[in-house]
Amino acid sequence: MDVPVLVAGGGPVGLAVAVELAYQGVRCLVVEPREEVSWLRPRAKTTSARSMELLRRWGLAERVRERAPLAVGWSDQAVFVSSLLGREITRIGGCFGLDLVGSELAAEPGQQVPQPLVEEVLREAVGDALLTGWQVTGLREDADGVSVRIASATGEEREVRARYVVGCDGPRSVTRAAIGARYEGRQDARPNFNIVFRAPGLAERMPHGPAVHYWVLNPAQPGIVGRLDLADTWWCIAQGVPAAGADPMRLVRNLAGADIEAEILATDPWNARMLLADRYASGRVFLAGDAAHQNPPYGGHGFNTGIGDAVNLGWKLAAVLHGWAPAALLATYETERRPVAADTIEAAAANMATLAPELADPALMGDEAEFEKVRPAVAEAVRRTKDSEFHSLDLVLGYTYEGSPIVAEGTGERLPHRWLAPGVSLYDRLGRGFSVVGDRRLPGAAALAGQVRELGVPLRVVDLPDVPLTLVRPDQHVAWRGEHPDGALRRALSHRPVSSRP
After folding, report:
1. Does the pLDDT of residue 501 top 50, yes or no?
2. What is the CATH number of domain 2-72+108-185+273-352?
């Protein structure tokens, strides 16, 4: 079997690579050992505003929202409590971009949705390109492509030939090992214990109202609790709890603050990791998602960083395979995405520096007078230390590729968003290839059109007379802005300047 691109791993990032390639008209094969998506280990629960914009770009955002158990307007609050059934200490609103409905800042607000649901939507979009029940066991790269060994759960083996391979095969990546890349970083020493449980009637007993997170600041059992749906399914992280000897039911009851009736559905012990691959690629093999980077979950960045990887790499692979760009363009994937992952790891680690155990105070569990005496100080500490965790749009929407060799000086940022009409985003008007936004009557627009004809690149012109002439990449980032686009498109695709050609 021969394919243009083979994707090792069909989690959300591998599936996003496949969706982006299909969006760009490139065939691929996704090899994934899991036959079915596991709903009992929901992992990520926040799809960021930026990821939702990219899902909108693929025509999938509305499908995700329709199926999400918690509507985007259900809550944007993080509530800090002595226990689920106890007293409220303080709250933080506008969390995770969930309040961006209709905002000029973004085409989409964030969405609270379990990762398995996002995976299901992406699986449907990928269709026959997904091969389940098989996994990549090794690969060999040569000048013309990559020979990939895959094996089924029954032991059958095959070889697939691909021009390029994208390794989205997680922390124990076969792909990463095959190219000789290694993680750099550290693991946090503190253990955590995830639990998914069913608790009929718990929501009706709680005095705190809807929330994205309930942070329990009980020194005897600190942690975070949230709802997976509006029925009876919940998740929690018991912080500082080792797996050995853990009693899930007792942990749930401690967080609830009462001996509630509950059914334990799944458990998952883990330690936070701050890891970054020392390199993202060899000649024809690339790493994305957890195969390239891992960060603590605090801030909700997790797989969202991997979705950004998928789009950045996907359009570049398509440009090379379609003949718009030389293979040199692919080297800019690492140049652009590795610094974003490094910044994300740093931000998530900073968020992890103050968790529920650090905020808990024994007086919060005392009588009303003791509680009220300490509550203002704890509330101030919460607002001071946790604001950046819940309000991180500068990272989510504001990261740039400034300094990349394929963007003009002073650019590289995501194209500033605007609404053109009710429900119609500027992003909806952009093409799948490159776009020119601005006054189409300006001489620079004609010059860009000439470059497009020369290179055979698909281009859409979005006429906005009040916007400076702007060349926008397929991933909605600005490649050039100004009046005289000398070689702007050639630079954006890693072509050598005309003047330097022999």
Report:
1. no
2. 3.50.50.60
CA dist list (Å): 375 to 79, 91, 365, 470: 13, 12, 11, 51
Catalogue the E-assigned strands of 15-141.
28-32, 46-47, 78-81, 88-92, 111-112, 130-132, 134-141
- Beta bridge partners of residue 164, listed in sequence order: 5
Among 3.40.50.720, 3.40.30.120, 2.120.10.30, 3.40.50.2300, name the CATH number for the domain at 419-500.
3.40.30.120
* C-alpha–C-alpha distance, residues 471 and 448, integer Å: 8
Q: If 0-12 CB within 10 Å is exposed, 13-18 middle and 19+ buried, where does residue 92 land? A: buried
pLDDT for 65-121, tens place per residue?
999 999 999 999 999 999 999 999 999 999 999 999 999 999 999 999 999 999 999
Q: Please state, in angstroms and rounded to a whole number, the distance separating the CA atoms of residues 487 and 491.
A: 6
Tokens representing 278 are: 């020392």
Q: Please state, in angstroms and as integers, the Cα–Cα distance from residue 128 to each residue in 22, 30, 124, 452, following that order.
A: 11, 9, 9, 33
In the chain, where the domains are located: 2-72+108-185+273-352, 419-500
Contacts of 167 (CB under 8 A, 6+ apart): 8, 9, 136, 173, 174, 175, 176, 178, 179, 285, 286, 287, 288, 291
Q: Would the CA dihedral through 236, 237, 240, 246 be positive or negative?
A: positive
Q: Look up the pTM and report it.
A: 0.96
Distance, CA of 121 to CA of 99 (rounded, Å): 23
Element (H, E) at 158: strand 157-167
User: Residues near 473 by Cβ (< 8 Å), separated by ≥ 6?
Assistant: 315, 434, 479, 492
In this structure, what token pair is assigned to residue 200?
């009929």
Whether 271 has a pLDDT exceeding 80, the answer reads yes
CA distances from 297 to 33, 331, 347, 425 (A): 24, 29, 10, 30
Question: What is the spatial distance between Cα 26 and Cα 22, in angstroms, rounded to a whole number?
Answer: 5
Cα–Cα distance measured from residue 494 to residue 336, given in angstroms and rounded to the nearest whole number: 13
Establish whether domains 2-72+108-185+273-352 and 419-500 are of one fold.
no
Arithmetic mean of pLDDT, 305-330: 98
Local structure of residue 217 (DSSP, 8 states)? -
Are 51 and 107 in contact, with CB atoms under 8 Å apart? no
Tokens (6 digits) for 302 = 């997790």
**Residue 456, Ramachandran bin (φ over 0: left; ψ between -120 and 50: alpha; else beta):** left
Q: Compute the C-alpha angle 10/15/16, nearest 5°.
A: 145
Structure tokens at 236: 């929690």
